[in-house]
Structures are given as structure tokens and as C-alpha cells.
Amino acid sequence: LLCVQAAVRARNRIAVVLCVLLVATVAWSAPHPGPNRMGVRALAHTGTQELRVLDSGDYRYLLVDGEPRVAVDPSTGGASAPDPSTLELMLQFFWPPGRCLFIGMPEPKLVHALTRRGWQVDVAEQRQLLELAETHLDLDTESFRPVSLTDVIRGLLRYDVLEEEDRYHIIVVQTRGSARQMQPFATRSGIESLRNRLHEDAILLFRIQAPGWDHQWPQAIGVTLLNQFNEVWALPVTGGPRNAGALVLAASDRYLEILHHQLPTPQDHPFDPELQLDSGRARNAWRYRFVPDGLDSPILELSRNNAPYWLEAFHAMDRQRLHRRLGGRSLSW
Question: What's the predicted TM-score (pTM) here?
């Protein structure tokens, strides 16, 4: 700036231009907050979506268009999602271990829990997401079989019926994907097509977020599941009837009952506070389970379906919560 002022006083235009260029060059080369300084470990694009791996506090997030898809504690591999232990409750209904399909990205620790018990696991997700999770979230891609999410969606729309040996004992639909990807699964025809991929007495699970247990979203999914299955339970993991939280919806033609002494307890893990918390959540989710049979909720059809609007609204809430957790810092989204 002193250089520019001196050149102006001397009325030397060439000197002024040279000084301005010098100042601009110094400013450009000076350190500035790049992606890594904002906690971004990786950035990729699929053509329609932006993928990021972001560190914030104790957790590492895998983001799709700014919405947290998976969050784990890098030091322990534990998930920030409150429901993995509730999903593990469903394993009690099967012996010997069978086959499980995750539609959408599961937590690495949840995949490990199933494979450790002898389950065969397939994961239907975008290839780039799996690669990022393998590199940055310690997802062991050798422990499961990756399946094309696009192929699964196409198979549902064609009503593909799998051979008996290719069917699954558990299918888990993760609704924290994009609304466009998840809509085919959150319909009567999509659930009917998923049923064609299940063994007899298998279990179909939906992991959902909702503004409350009484909201039309879990009630509509529940009514649509009851149209296809004999037994449907909503397991409230967090939140309340009118408070935002997570639920697991379990649907099956078998009788779903877990005896009191079969439920996990915090005392099962005296030296692991994280597992104590997970066990307590799973126990309470089973204790407060209910039938989501909202009488005023419609059966979700492909042509008459509010699920995309609900999902987009919940994803916006997730982005806002993450934005606050980051201290209000803005990224490209």
C-alpha cells in the first residue's frame, strides 16, 4: 500500500499499475482457508451430487449434497446414528445366520457386527460413496458384496423375483438417501417388490427420521407396510410423539416377539459407555414399540406420494443441524 501511495504522489501510472499487480500477487499467494482447514478431507462429484468427507468435533461425516449420510467416531468406529443396536435386535429371529441387504450406506460398525456373527451382507450404494467410506471411514469393503443401487431400483420397477437361494432374510432400507433414490422404495409397489426378494418369515426394516412418532411420514410408511405384511412394529429410538427423532419400522409375516430377558442391557457392557447407551436405546425402543396404523394416513403410491417432500424437508433439517454444529461456517452448499 505504501508503494501504491508513493506512485500516486509521483503521478506515475506505470508505477501504479506495477504496484497494484504486486499487491494482488502477494494476496493471491498468501495462505487462505482451503478445504482442509475447514475440516474437509475429501471432495468428489457424481455428476448430479457433491460428496464430501468432513471432520467436525469427535465425528467424521460422509455428506451427500451437504446432508449427513453416515457419521462415525474415527477413534472407535462408533456411529452417531442412534439405531444400530436396535437393528441388531432383529438378528435374534434367525439361526443360522442368513443374508442381509442394505439399500443405502450402512455404518461400518454395523456391517462388522453382522459379518462377525456369520451373516452374508450385500450393500446397494453408489460406487464413489463406498470408495470414500473405505478410505476415510474404515469400511471394510472385503467383508460384503457391493451391489449397484441403480440395478436394485430397476429390478424393483420390473418386479424381479429372485431365486430362493438369492433371497434375503433381512433387507434394511436407509431413507437418509436422496428423495429421488428413496421414493421407489417408499411406495406400495416398491414394498411389494422388496417382498419378492425376501425369504418366507424374513424381516423388512426401514430406518427413518421424523418430526415425531405421530407424523404422517412414519404412519404412512406403516400403513403401506401393513398392506403387505401381517405384522408391523415401529420402534422409536429417539424423540417422542411430537419430537424429532429416529425410528426403525420392522415388517414381517412372522410373529415378532422378544422376551424380556433376551433384550440387551447396559450391564452387558460394563467398560464401554457407548455400548451401554446403545443397549439402553434398543431396550427402550422395544419397550415403547407401537403399531403405526394411522387411520388418516394414505397408502403410499408411486403417483400419489408425499414422501419426497417429507424426505427433502428432513434433509434440510439435517443440513441446518450440521451447519450449527460447524459453528455457522458455510461450505459450497
Answer: 0.83
